[in-house]
Amino acid sequence: DSGVTQTPKHLITATGQRVTLRCSPRSGDLSVYWYQQSLDQGLQFLIHYYNGEERAKGNILERFSAQQFPDLHSELNLSSLELGDSALYFCASSTGALGGQETQYFGPGTRLLVL
Amino acid sequence: SQQGEEDPQALSIQEGENATMNCSYKTSINNLQWYRQNSGRGLVHLILIRSNEREKHSGRLRVTLDTSKKSSSLLITASRAADTASYFCATVRRNRDDKIIFGKGTRLHILP
C-alpha cells in the first residue's frame, strides 16, 4: 500500500459525459501527478501540481482539467468523454516539487470505461 | 513521444533464473527509473539511477546505466513467482521540466 488513495476504483459512463476522479496523496506529500495508461499510448504523464499550483503539463487534452485543493487532495475532471478516453488513470504523489527527480508513489488507479 | 523503449516486450523464464530487461532512450537524461506494475494495479518504484552513476543495487535488483549508449538494464536475480509483472523504465530528460516519460514496458512471467 503506497498511501495514495484514489476514488472511484471503477467508472463506467457514456460518451459526451463528464466525470471527476479524486486522489489523496500520501501524508506529508505536497506534489500530485496524474497519468493515463491505455493499451495503445502506454503510460502518459498528464499534469503535476505542487502545493496547489500547477507545475508541469504533459499530454493533457483541453477537455481535461485538474486542480489541487488546500488540503492537498486533487481532482481530475474529464469532460465530453470519447471512447478513446477509456483507460486507467493513476495519481502519484511525492514529497517535494522535483517531479521526476524524486520517487513518486502511485495510487491503485481508476479504471474508466466510456461506452 | 516515447523516450524509453524496453526490450524484450515479453519474457518468460523459470523460477530461480535471472531476468534481464533492457531500456534504450533517445535524449540526454537527468536520471532513469525502473518501476514494476502488477496486473492492472499501480506502479511501484524500484530504483532510480542518476546520469552520473553506472550501477546500482537494491536487494535482488541490479541496474546499470550506459549514457554513451543511452541504455539501461535491469537484472532480477533468483526470480520468484511474485516477480511476475510488467517492468517500465522511465526517464527524466536533461534541461526539461522534470517530467517522467515512461516506456511501454516488459511483461515478465515467471514459470513455476
Write the layout of secondary structure elements.
The complex is a heterodimer of chains A (115) and B (112).
Chain A: E1 5-7, E2 10-13, E3 19-24, E4 31-38, E5 42-50, E6 53-57, E7 64-68, E8 74-78, E9 87-94, E10 105-106, E11 110-114
Parallel strand pairs in A: 2-11
Antiparallel strand pairs in A: 1-3, 3-8, 4-5, 4-9, 5-6, 7-8, 9-10, 9-11
Chain B: E1 5-7, E2 10-14, E3 19-24, E4 29-37, E5 43-50, E6 55-58, E7 61-66, E8 71-76, E9 85-93, E10 100-102, E11 106-111
Parallel strand pairs in B: 2-11
Antiparallel strand pairs in B: 1-3, 3-8, 4-5, 4-9, 6-7, 7-8, 9-10, 9-11
Structure in words:
- The complex is a heterodimer of chains A (115) and B (112).
- Chain A has 115 residues and is mostly beta strands.
- Chain A contains no helices and 11 strands.
- Chain A starts with a strand and ends with a strand.
- Chain B is globular.
- Chain B is mainly beta and 112 residues long.
- In chain B, strands 2, 4, 5, 9, 10 and 11 form a 6-stranded mixed β-sheet that branches.
